[in-house]
Amino acid sequence: MPSPQTPAASEPRRPHRLSRRAALAGLAATVVTATAAPAALANAPAPATARRPAHRPTGTPITQADPVLGPHVTVFDPSMPIGDIQATLDAAFRQQETAQFGTGRFAFLFRPGHYQDLDVNIGYYTHVAGLGRSPDDVDITGWVRVEADWFDGNATHNFWRTAENLSVTPWDGYNRFAVSQAAPVRRLHIRGEMPLWNGYDGWASGGFMADSKVDRVVSGSQQQWLTRNSELGEWAGSVWNMVFVGVDGAPPHHFPNPSHTVVDRAPLVKEKPYLYLDDAGEYAVLVPEIRRDARGTSWSGGPTPGTSLPLSAFHVAQEGDTAADLNAALAAGKHLLLTPGVYRVTETLQITHPGTVVLGIGLATLVPEGGINAVKIADVDGVQLAGVLIDAGPGGSETLLEIGDAGTTTRHRDDPIHLHDVFARIGGAGPGSAERSVVVHSHDTLIDHVWLWRGDHGEGVGWDVNPATNGLVVNGDDVTGYGLFVEHYQGHQVIWRGDRGRTYFYQCELPYDPPDQAAWMNGDELGWTAYVVAEDVTEHTAYGLGVYTLMLEDETITTERAIAAPDGAGIDFTSMVIVSLGQLGIINHVINDLGGPAGPGLNDGIFYLPSN
């Protein structure tokens, strides 16, 4: 494979994600040889091996709106002609395959039963889910897949889509899911192999799987991945940062070659709420029970234990509902189901009642206007916010999502506030800015997969165009994070001030666009640290942290350290890696003054540190 290439000063630079792809291609020889398990790469199938039925039925797309869930939700039944279902899915995929910053939002829901010979190809802002109580209630023979054909095999742009709560028996034994950030896999049962890359030429850059059962996973060129509370027949491959928490069948702990970080059990976890059909055939939302010291799926011994909330307890929001409509429902004690759409809100959504569930489907998107904050969760027990994308508006929000109140002393040990699949975006879809994306004041909060992203491509991006300082600020004690993806902010990406915090998997890219070193300075220190634990913290635990630099304007721009934490017996970091992508940019140290450097001509641009 080609060696890394550094553009000449006079050479015009390509858009940064394409530059990133070139940089990663330059690293391929090093990564595949050193850490990616060549046998696993060899075993991953090329798309040409896929076998569909010789004669797929053709049909007419289903166009009627669901009478309960609205115009952007299609509910399938096994009695429907399979050709009509396929035509509906194909029409949506054609629209959404390349619509990276489009406004289309879709949810395709499958009633329990068997669906024979169906190809579910998932595009942008598309949510595919079964309506059974357990994943095996909906079985699809075919594929439920994500490819990267639209981008020449490069899956580093395959964001903002999801698949959950169904089972797949793939035609050819392979069900590909080549994704990067904000594309969660939840409650899937794959009766075959699941490649996490496209299998022939390209990269994938980060993913999340929870509460799932897969016969075999091949990670291939997938760079980093968190698997939580799942069951695996086999896992093959690694690149930089593969983390397993509470996984039956996880590979042995070994870091960095292969880069497998294994934690036996999840100390405290609650699976994401999901829409299903109850025993009466009516829509309801299942809120799973909290689990402690959890291993394996929530449904291995039978249906997931939990509380069923009837849909009558929800305000079913549809695109066009105003912030006043949503706040009125929340104030009246209603839960909130945000059906697919883009909701422009002119007042902060206030979630004040204990136990409130706000569940988005189809990547429901909130856009705060006029400089307001998007969502405020009160310091009360049991609130769950799930399946929501918050898109910063041009007015300059202070905080997109705030949880609790500064200085709170209220505890939530028995019924914590919980985030699941909450994504924030500043720039990319258009002009937007925010000082911080998420601030957590409430103690005991659980964070189950977030991608907080200052846009590095798309519309409304640039060093002075989409300003944003911090991705995540944690002030509360005993906060736990599973799957923190935080990227491109202009200050510290994560600041952790609360005591006894726990992080299981962290992925961060520093901003690509500082114009020079002077713009990337923290006072007298070179650059801003990606993950900072405050000096007065006495206990903090973190597993599997990857911090990457790609300085496109000047490859000599330097960051002094990726991670900063106080010394002490209660500070424990395990499995850390820093990478200079394409050897463009320098990180001097991994944590404090330990480890490193990574940069042009330094350790092949990669440095691993098993523990602090």
Automatic annotation (TrEMBL):
Gene3D superfamilies: Single-stranded right-handed beta-helix, Pectin lyase-like. Keywords: Signal. Residues 41-61 have a biased composition (Low complexity). The keyword Signal applies. Residues 41-70 are annotated as: Disordered. InterPro entries: Pectin_lyas_fold, Pectin_lyase_fold/virulence, SACTE_4363, TAT_signal. Residues 1-36 form the signal peptide. Transmembrane segments: none annotated. PROSITE patterns: TAT. This is Adenylyl cyclase. It comes from Streptomyces chisholmiae.
